[in-house]
Amino acid sequence: MPPPGPGRRGLGGHRNNGRVTRVPISLLDLVLVGHGRTPAEAIAATVRTARTAETHGYARFWLAEHHNMRGVASSATAVLVGHVADHTRSIRVGAGGVMLPNHPPLVVAEQFGTLAAMHGDRIDLGLGRAPGTDPLTARALRRAEAAVTSFAEEVAEVRDFLGPVRKDAQVRAVPGEGTRVPIWVLGSSHAGASVAAHFGLPYSFASHFAPAMLRSALEGYRAAFRPGSIEAPHTMAAANVMVADTEAQARRLFSSVLQRFHGIVTGRRGRLPEPTDGDVTSSWPPAVRAAVGEMVACSFVGTPGQVREGLTDFARHTGVDELIVTCAPYDPEDRLRSVHLLGEAWAA
User: Fold this and answer.
1) Confidence check: pLDDT of 147 > 70
2) Cβ pair 29, 52 in contact under 8 A
């Protein structure tokens, strides 16, 4: 399985009277720790990436919650959101997302209400229903297993804590109430789509690692949507990207991403590997190659023009209102270059 190339269909824009109108593009960061590097270095690289994204017109910079992974330093997501917001000026910063089963809704509302008090209307709150980790670590987080099945009720609690001030409320999020921090529901299946539709919230699909139900989940969300926090359905889809000056260079950089997904599939999670020449997948068992191929199906690798074209087609075919991409080469300098090139191409 060679790295995905520019021929893959993905994110992009909508066609209006024959002219492509590009949808907003955002960046999702996992604060990946490369082999031989430290979490402190990864966090510093994330701040630099956010600044680059802001300079090049990306709409949002989101951070994702994960736990017990040596190669991921984004466990304290709210802390990182505040840190990135401290070092940027205009880009929206948020969680993509907070895994709600790990946290009491009141605590989440207080954390993001505090962020809104400090940074104004620049903060987003994406809520997911997965634990973002393995079962043993989920138990160590000391949240009840029932929290996963009561996701809809807990989303409603967070929404109410951040919503208009209620005179009769006996429990309040302070800071939090009245801030109306925008809430997104995140998901990779129909479950999250139905919750988002029920409460009238925007919906973001995790197609950068679980694209199988992308189309059906988006269709289900749009069909079931009823006005709530927003008046009409609003969708976002995620994709992996790797942009370089040449297609060959981009494919080489993407080999680190493929190796990372190989570790996920085989249960050997570690720090982000260095890139390799040639087809890194050639020695993998067929079943592993197929599994990784399914996970990275929404990936766009190549020159700025090639990736822009692929993302544009993807947005048109899915009809999403926004795009969010993740870019994870081993070297932070290559990531800055990739974010820079895509930002310029998207604005062109």
Assistant:
1) no
2) no
